[in-house]
Amino acid sequence: xxxxRLTIALTVLICCFNLxxxxxxxxxKQTQLIKSVGGxxxxxxVGFPQGTSFNINFDQITFNVDVSIPGTTSNWSASSNNGTxxxxxxxxxxSAGQHTLLESYTLSVTSSNQLIGQPQIQFAFQQTRxxxxxxxATYKLTINSAIRNVTVELxxxxxxGGAPDTPILGSSFSLTLTSAKMINAGEAIGFAANVxxxxxxxxxxxxxxxxxxxxxxDRFITTWxxxxxxx
Length: 231
Known about the structure:
Blueprint: H1 2-18, E1 24-26, E2 30-43, E3 53-58, E4 60-68, E5 75-80, E6 84-94, E7 97-110, E8 120-133, E9 137-155, E10 159-168, E11 173-179, E12 188-207, H2 213-229
Antiparallel strand pairs: 1-12, 2-12, 3-11, 4-5, 4-7, 6-9, 7-8, 9-10, 9-12, 10-11
């Protein structure tokens, strides 16, 4: 009886792996240089002697992507409150042949500090991917994007400084300002931040009917449990 149940379970496991053997394809990884200019203007609440330093914390980050297929009404979106954006797999029907994905990104980096006018830096950029669907089917698309290698150059008659190079943008980053001269209380001051970075993104396309190893394991455990209990 035990041998019989084991034979059935092994048969189920083999089927779990072999019912759907369609291949997945990782579309070529893309890296794109992004640039933006932001900054702020405010009235000095107090006087600053030359050489006074303080930090501006950009603590509100919104990273969005809208994915569309040109020529169709199909579109999907995802968002994150840091510099990494991972879109859970979504299903889309493709006919066999060549297709294009348009990924439209926006990135907003804002300081919540109202005393300095809540300075903001905004980006907008796009990536286009062309790929071939081997067969007409429902596919899963997975998108994984990140903002990397962020650098900041400060442009101001009032301040010098910048931000440390950031290998990958997290949920915030700080900009250090040092007064280049005496600043009087009530004086109108401002700064511009020239920001550059890289968008690194990967997209994976796989047949939605494919059984992954994890799914097959789960099926096997569920099926084997049912067989053991069927006495």
